[in-house]
Amino acid sequence: MFELDFRNIIVLVSLAIHAALLVVLFRYGRKTAGGKAYTIAILAIAGWIMPMALYRSNLFGEALLWARLLYAMASLTSTSFLFFTLIFPDNKRVPIWLQIFFIFENFLIILLCFHPTLMISGLQFVPGHETRILWGSLYFIYANHISLLFLAGFIVLYLKRRKADALVKSQINYILGGYFVAANLAMTTNLILPWLGYFELNWLGQFFSTLIAVLTTYAILKRQLLYIRLIATEGFILILNFLLVVQLIFSKSYQNFLVNLLVLAAVAAISVLLVKSVNKEIQRREELTKANLRLQELDKQKTEFLDIASHQLRTPLSALIGLLSMQCDGDFEGLEKTEIKQQQKNMLTSAERLKNIVHDLMEAMEVELGAKLKPVPTDIAKLIEDTINTLQPNYERKKLFLKYTPPDSPLPQINADPSFLTHVFMNLIDNACNYTEAGGATIELYQEKNQVVFQIIDTGIGITAKEKENLFGKFVRAKRAMLVRPDGSGLGLFIVKKIVEAHGGKIILTSDGENKGSAFKVYLPAKL
Amino acid sequence: MDFQKAKIMLVEDDPIIIDMYRLKFKLAELNLIVSPSAKETIKTVTENKPDLILLDLQLEDNISGFDILREIKARSETKNIPVYILSNKRERGNREEGIRLGAVDFLAKTDIKPEDLIKIVRDKLENI
What we know:
The structure holds 2 protein chains of 2 kinds. Chain A has 3 domains: 6-225, Up-down Bundle (Rhopdopsin 7-helix transmembrane proteins); 244-297, no CATH class; 372-528, Heat Shock Protein 90. Chain A contains 15 helices and 9 strands. Chain A has helices at 6-28, 33-57, 63-87, 96-114, 139-163, 166-195, 204-220, 227-249, 254-328, 337-368, 380-397, 418-434, 465-468, 479-484, 492-502; strands at 120-124, 132-135, 376-378, 401-405, 414-416, 440-448, 451-458, 506-511, 518-525. In chain A, the strands form 3 sheets. Chain A has a 5-stranded mixed beta sheet, covered by helices on one side. In chain A, strand 6 (440-448) and strand 7 (451-458) form a beta hairpin. The mean pLDDT of chain A is 83. Chain B is an alpha/beta fold. Chain B has one domain (7-126): Response regulator (Rossmann fold, 3-Layer(aba) Sandwich), CATH 3.40.50.2300. Chain B is 42% helix and 18% strand. Chain B is built from 5 helices and 5 strands, in the order E-H-E-H-E-H-E-H-E-H. Chain B has helices spanning 15-27, 38-48, 65-74, 94-100, 114-126, and strands spanning 7-11, 31-35, 52-55, 83-87, 105-108. Chain B has a 5-stranded parallel beta sheet, with helices on both faces. Chain B starts with 6 loop residues before the first strand and ends with a helix. Classes of the chains: A alpha+beta, B alpha/beta. Chains A and B meet through helix 9, helix 10 and helix 14 of A and helix 1 of B.
């Protein structure tokens, strides 16, 4: 028979608490790999508590079987703890070979637990005392397995604690502290003392682990404390409804029954509404938190952008102010004409750079802040031909060629915002002209699978592998490009890339290096 | 100190700013050595042993003016060279960081006119 002595009651209460924790964890801790691993660790502990009560009661006269199960489950608590420490808090995957190793190792330990003699050879019932287990010759392997795995878990957690940020550190403190105390106490009462032949306390480990499980669960779900209100509401409602059902069952008369039924129905309906509304509020709060984080991120980006932008604006400004003040001071008097002309050109270039930066900044802000594209079915060939016609004179002025090969057959239309897309082609075709001294540029337009490809290859200054790294970034300019075009804003390619990406396309840059020309390819999805 | 013999080094990568200071220092009859590449700066410093360094903060991607300043102050043969930060990177903390690392002062490029810069440089050279 199942024995309900004081010790078993404690064991059963422990089991109930673990079950409740599991429900909470299952609902709220499942979102991360670490939460899942912890749920499994608690499940293993629950699975270790249950056989203790069965073993102590000698249920169905199978105490020996329950003892074997008890120790098999205890083995799982250490393995699941180690796995949890490997996964938490960065949610890293445990390498598959390690998984296989531990599953295999655990399998062997479980086999050992169920071997007729090697680990547990029999039981000795002593009236008025806890049942004694007779150990086999390999019990020490089992004991080592448990203690080493826990030790490994403690070390892993300790190492992770050193690298963790403040919040995670406090979580690890709870978990490490809790597990350390619980596992060591439980190992003492349930592993070492029984080894020495003292069995009177071997039910206490289950009790210790419960105290700790509550603490650690709290620590893990700390971030989601919002849910506590929901849990409390649900718990309260559950109890209320349960009491009303009891009242209904024990109704004294038919009339009484009807009244109770009505009350129950009303309360149940209100309960549903209440849970829903709390749920909704929590959802709303979560959304608010998310939106707030997003805003903070945007704000950070904006500040960063402004910092760089103001620096970029100041550079041409300081040249302008410096040169103008020199002129006012009469520094230019008596200079050679070529020198004066050079400095005047520098002023003009600085002013133009200022203008370009302001213009491109506006453009970049618009793209950055997610300007609403107004896509319409667009004939890309026409768009490019128009752009070429606009820029042709620039090429002619520098005596460069601009060769355009129209597609063999009409291209499919693309869904695009023509004004933004024109900016892309304008920028790329103009760049090819700016950064080429001799030769020229070749433009091709063709279809590749479901995409329309625009390609421009020039014979210009080229781009080295190092310059390529960050060329599509904000305010990034290759050094040699700066010499060729000191008035550039460093935003052109950044904007181009953003626009292309906003159209669901991509841009690829290739170059064989310095003075070997560059090639830009823009892929845009065709309208199907 | 004999201004004619003094060597001033400008660490700057903007061609127009370089051109402006080149002219201004020539007019002020001061020798200006320009190091447009952050990577080469330390080499140029040890080779030329300038008497004063004007250092921009925003240089090539991976090397900031602070890195160069740290390096200059760490080497025994260069640590006594006075370094002025001449930059437009005026974010909060940059001035303090520069002075903490051993710069004489932080000069904002937009605020210091070329004439003022010459005055500051001359004053400093006189006191060496």
